[in-house]
Design a protein that fits this description.
The structure is a single chain. The chain has 17 helices and 13 strands. The chain is an alpha/beta fold and about 475 residues long. It is globular, with a radius of gyration of 25 Å. A seven-stranded mixed sheet has the order 3-9-8-7-6-4-5, with helices on both faces. A four-stranded antiparallel sheet has the order 10-11-13-12. Helix content is about 45%, strand content about 15%. The N and C termini lie far apart (about 80 Å). Bound molecules: pyridoxal-5'-phosphate. The site of pyridoxal-5'-phosphate (PLP) has 13 residues, from helix 6. Pyridoxal-5'-phosphate (PLP) binds next to helix 6.
Length: about 475
């Protein structure tokens, strides 16, 4: 047995490289990361898909090691070249992500020390860090001290946790589902529907409440529909509002919807995955008034706080609702449950062992301070109005709505031919050019292009460039008649 152990140990110890190997790898990786960051101004926002990263398939994990230079080359060619570059300031599609550099360092630290952030007893510091960030956000949105929350992997999972918390808080049982009613609009993010199905609520009655001309839920229609449903013997259960819808950035009238939900004793959920962090600005404070009426709300730090992907947030007005929905007992956890000055993330979420996500949020906030975040968010709101003003001056373009937050819908009206096909061609041409990336949407049968301004690296010169490219491409399509 001794020989065998010696042999295995010698091989196993390869997993713990010495200082000089670590330095070598570290150097190679940070050099790669630093030059990527330095080049962001020149790198395209969207690059041709080429062979779509197939090179990775030719180099699967093998028994023997590869060297770090080869490995980084594989990443460069197959991962960091084709497709969308969300770190680019030219990313104006969907809802842009960010990628603040200190967040990467936070992930590095979290991974190296590997503190167990699921349970207070294991790492009181890690848990306090996460809970402190949650309380900080609770204060920003005007929640009382009974509030709490959890750092999730993204907005979709945060929405799922909100739906399960609502289900359990309202005591909705499987047999009630067919008669339970959820109220929302057609503009609610698709992940909410996914969440309801996963939570076993797929058979619930869905009432899509009509919207005003700016795609905001009409409160009087909501109240009437709830009352009518009650009369029919149905069980109104939950109202879902958007605070910054993905399509148009519309904010539902939160104060009125919150009051109606409370009158009828329904759970009020606000999806603020995109728009929530604008509460850090004065303008956002005004626009998001009433958000504190939500029983639950979600925000995405990997959108509005410019962090790299992998961080969503759920806040609940009464922390006990999340605890109730996720509580557990396990004999093998009995020692860990003795020390509990603060609630543990594992008690507030479906996860037990989890990534120590707090560090990637805390480090940038500490190293930068909050002030530049407020400024960057206010900048995005102003850039949206600037984009609207500029694009409206280019003949042929029209903007149907004043931007509510930082998403601007617009379209080109060609002299003749199919306008939808024209705008789709325009999107194609933008992607081919690659310096700017925008995505489109269809509302009431009309194709619109969206300028979604939320990347930390998007500034006035990016918008000027976008306007020039749009003008140039539209003129070209108009002239060449690429579109029938
Ligand atoms: C992005 C978004 C989501 C989904 O969040 P993920 O982090 O992508 O899972 C949900 N709702 C809204 C309004 C969003 O913008």
């Amino acid at each position: 047995m001794g020989d065998r152990l010696e042999e295995l140990e010698a091989l196993a110890r390869q997993l713990e490289p010495d200082r000089s190997t670590r330095d070598h790898w570290h150097q190679a990786v940070t050099t790669y990361g630093q030059s990527f960051t330095d080049q962001l101004d020149e790198l395209p926002a969207f690059a041709p898909l080429g062979d779509k990263g197939k090179g990775l398939l030719e180099a699967p994990p093998a028994e023997e090691p590869d060297n770090v230079e080869n490995v980084l080359q594989l990443i460069r060619d197959n991962v960091d070249t084709p497709g969308l570059n969300p770190a680019s300031g030219g990313h104006l599609g969907y809802i842009p992500g960010g990628g603040l550099y200190p967040s990467a360092l936070g992930d590095y630290l979290a991974a190296v020390t590997n503190r167990y952030a699921g349970i207070f007893f294991s790492s009181p510091g890690a848990v306090r860090m996460e809970n402190m960030l949650i309380r900080w956000l609770c204060e920003q949105v005007g929640y009382p001290s009974t509030a709490g929350g959890n750092l999730a992997s993204g907005g979709s999972i945060a929405n799922l946790m909100a739906v399960t918390a609502a289900r359990d808080a309202k005591g909705l049982r499987a047999r009630d589902v067919e008669n339970a009613v959820v109220y929302l609009t057609q503009q609610v993010h698709h992940c909410v529907d996914k969440a309801m199905r996963i939570a076993g609520l797929g058979e619930m009655v869905r009432r899509f409440i009509p919207m005003d001309e700016r795609f905001r839920m009409k409160p009087d229609e909501l109240a009437e529909t709830i009352a009518a449903d009650q009369k029919k013997g149905l069980k109104p259960f939950m109202v879902i509002a958007s605070a910054g819808s993905t399509d148009t950035g519309a904010i539902d009238p939160l104060p009125a919807l919150g009051d109606i939900a409370s009158t009828y004793d329904l759970w009020f959920h606000v999806d603020a995955a995109y728009g929530g962090f604008f509460v850090l600005t004065e303008e956002g404070q005004t626009k998001l008034q009433g958000i504190d009426k939500a029983d639950s709300l979600i925000l995405d730090p990997h959108k509005g706080l410019f962090l790299p992907y992998g961080l969503g947030m759920i806040l609940v007005k009464d922390q006990n609702t999340l605890l109730q929905s996720n509580k557990f007992e396990a004999n093998y956890m009995q020692d860990a449950q003795m020390v509990r000055d603060e609630p543990s993330p594992a008690e507030m979420s479906p996860e037990l062992t989890k990534h120590f996500r707090g560090m990637r949020m805390w480090l940038p906030l500490k190293l930068f301070g909050v002030k530049p975040f407020r400024a960057a968010l206010a900048e995005k709101l102003t850039l949206a109005r600037y984009f609207k003003k500029q694009i409206e001056q280019v003949p042929g373009f029209e903007v149907p709505l004043e931007p509510e937050l930082s998403v601007v819908l617009f379209r080109y009206r060609p002299n003749e031919g199919d306008a939808n096909a024209f705008n789709q061609e325009l999107i194609q041409q933008l992607q081919k050019d690659g310096r700017i990336f925008m995505s489109s949407t269809t509302i009431d049968g009309l194709v619109y292009i969206r300028a979604a301004i939320l990347s930390v690296r998007t500034h006035r010169d990016t918008i000027d460039l976008a306007i020039r490219i749009l003008q140039e491409k539209a003129t070209l399509i108009q002239k060449n008649g690429t579109v029938s």
